[in-house]
């Protein structure tokens, strides 16, 4: 009897060791590589079973609905497109962020290019790097290219996530920058899948030389996703800014909490 109990305990320990040896990134790769199953047939059957509806002329109510829909969607997403310029860099001319509200004698820019790099770690076994290029060719719109790379020590596994985003800068106030963006993400290193991505974020310039930023990004890969949440504080020094804070990543079903530090430079 004792030998059976001992054997059962050893088997449980072995199973736990095998599962643990798989590592976080291998589990994430399995999740992100899953083949997507289409549910279009059930969706189409639901559409076919809908009733005929009312043939009465909607008239006035149709126009009211269109007006409300505009303000709830396009109006909120795009807002008023007042002209803006860029300061040379945040706090270059007093207490302000990136955008200038008025045409001033102080030097202003019509575009901005920024390069950023962040290193992060979660314990001793897990670390990564996030490299990003951001180019706003006009104050309203910009493109962003990024590469996020994860490393795991035991077992030695890597996972690369590359994105291309088009961002619309919805809030362009003196002390606040807010944006949303859409694009595509490619997951490499054996996953080799591409999916739709979207993101939102806001930067608040509190008082020279500090600012605070929060952002959320989700990339839909197969039936899973790569999620990124960042809560960062920045210290600005002319065209440089040093940042640090909390990074949360969800790769499929794998959650990773990490602390990161990095550097930004505005051209």
Automatic annotation (TrEMBL):
UniProt KW Signal keyword: yes
Keywords: Signal
Keyword Cytoplasm: no
Leader sequence residues: 1-21
Domain of life: Bacteria
Biased composition (Low complexity): 33-49
Region (Disordered): 27-56
Entry protein name: Outer membrane beta-barrel protein
């Amino acid at each position: 009897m004792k030998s059976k109990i001992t054997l059962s305990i050893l088997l449980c320990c072995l199973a736990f060791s095998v599962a643990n040896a798989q590592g976080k990134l291998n589990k994430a790769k399995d999740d992100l590589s899953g083949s997507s199953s289409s549910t279009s047939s059930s969706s189409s059957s639901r559409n076919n079973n809908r009733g005929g509806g009312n043939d009465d002329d909607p008239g006035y109510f149709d126009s009211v609905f269109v007006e409300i829909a505009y303000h709830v969607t396009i109006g909120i997403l795009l807002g008023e497109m007042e002209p803006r310029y860029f300061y040379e860099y945040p706090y270059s001319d007093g207490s302000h962020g990136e955008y200038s509200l008025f045409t001033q004698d102080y030097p202003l820019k019509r575009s901005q290019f920024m390069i950023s790099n962040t290193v992060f770690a979660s314990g001793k076994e897990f670390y990564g790097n996030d490299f990003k290029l951001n180019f706003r060719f006009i104050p309203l719109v910009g493109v962003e290219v990024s590469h996020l790379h994860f490393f795991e020590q035991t077992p030695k596994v890597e996972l690369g996530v590359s994105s291309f985003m088009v961002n619309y800068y919805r809030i362009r106030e003196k002390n606040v920058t807010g944006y949303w963006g859409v694009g595509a993400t490619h997951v490499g290193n054996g996953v080799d899948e591409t999916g739709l991505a979207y993101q939102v974020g806001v930067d608040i310039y509190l008082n020279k030389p500090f600012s605070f930023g929060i952002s959320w990004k989700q990339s839909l890969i197969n039936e899973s996703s790569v999620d990124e949440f960042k809560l960062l504080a920045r210290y600005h020094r002319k065209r440089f800014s040093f940042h640090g804070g909390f990074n949360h990543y969800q790769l499929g079903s794998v959650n990773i909490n990490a602390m990161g530090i990095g550097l930004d430079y505005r051209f």
